[in-house]
Amino acid sequence: RSSYSCCYFVLPCCFFDFHGKYSRRQSKKTQYREYLDFVAQVGFACGFHVEEDCLRIPSTKRVSFIGKSRTYPAAEHALIDKQITQFINSRRTGAVASCDRRVGFNHKDHCGGLCKEAGSEPPEDETETAGTIWMPGFQPREKVEQIRNCASLPRDFVDEVVLNVANLLLNAAPQKSCSDKQGGNVNTWNQGESLSLREVAEHLNKETLKKLKSEYGGLQTLLKNNHQVFEVLNGRVHIRDWRKEKPPSKTKPEVKRRLSAEAFKTRLCWFFIHHPDGCSLPSEACPYAHGTEELR
């Protein structure tokens, strides 16, 4: 709608309509094919000769649509823009969404008066609305998408939360003994207690929780990001015991197994620095550095 000379290319992926998830209507087609037909229908409704192509890319969703030319002369652009507005309005509500939209232009004929009942009757001055507001209430994404997966939080803040939660788990109950009987020796390493995410959150201060609330997943995301220290299972937080981690699969190619065994240590071991019993693994078995001299 930006101009008569506009062309477009679209690679449909996620199943969305103008106002939310796309609802299936034809069980005889696959969900993907039905959605492709819907996207092509939008192109036709907007007055394009829609061409379909299959991209040579490593993806299961590689069917694209191209609109390079119009189905009407430039002189009719204002009229078609009015019909496009009607097509958009016809998809606003559930009642109207059930109407036949194979063409999408004769809005009143296809809806049979449902639009008025559903409260989505197009404004009196369609042309003015089409020229000023393409879709009332639509809020596009920001040009720069904000990262909200806890990755952009200050490192000092993350380290402080990790240490606070770890100490909370270690001090939540009497020391639990984890025995390692390799070589006949019994070594005790405190794995601490497990707590629910709610219990952990209750022990954090309001300022910390406020910062985490603005991130997707909040506290749980931060703890999962720090998988070296924590394990989050079924809504409960545990301190990770690296002795229980499964060894690398023996089915891996020999070259990959050799490379993983000789991998450089680029991060310090949190347990070596902060855990009262140190790391549960010896230096040669730990994937993290026990001291700066091991860093590469």
Automatic annotation (TrEMBL):
Gene Ontology MF terms in the entry: tRNA(Ser) (uridine(44)-2'-O-)-methyltransferase activity; zinc ion binding
Domain (C3H1-type) ranges: 263-293
Transmembrane segments: none
Enzyme class name: transferase
Catalyzed reactions: uridine(44) in tRNA(Ser) + S-adenosyl-L-methionine = 2'-O-methyluridine(44) in tRNA(Ser) + S-adenosyl-L-homocysteine + H(+)
InterPro entries named in the record: tRNA_uracil_MeTrfase (IPR011671), Znf_CCCH (IPR000571)
Keywords: Cytoplasm, Metal-binding, Methyltransferase, S-adenosyl-L-methionine, Transferase, tRNA processing, Zinc, Zinc-finger
Major localization class: cytoplasm
Compartment list: Cytoplasm
The enzyme's E.C. designation: 2.1.1.211
Gene3D superfamilies on file: Zinc finger, CCCH-type (4.10.1000.10)
Zinc finger C3H1-type: from-to: 263-293
GO cellular component, one term: cytoplasm
An example Gene Ontology biological process: tRNA methylation
Family: Belongs to the TRM44 family.
Function as written in the Swiss-Prot or TrEMBL entry: Adenosyl-L-methionine (AdoMet)-dependent tRNA (uracil-O(2)-)-methyltransferase.
Protein name, UniProt field: tRNA (uracil-O(2)-)-methyltransferase
Species in which this protein is naturally found: Polioptila caerulea (Blue-grey gnatcatcher)
Organism phylogeny: Eukaryota, Metazoa, Chordata, Craniata, Vertebrata
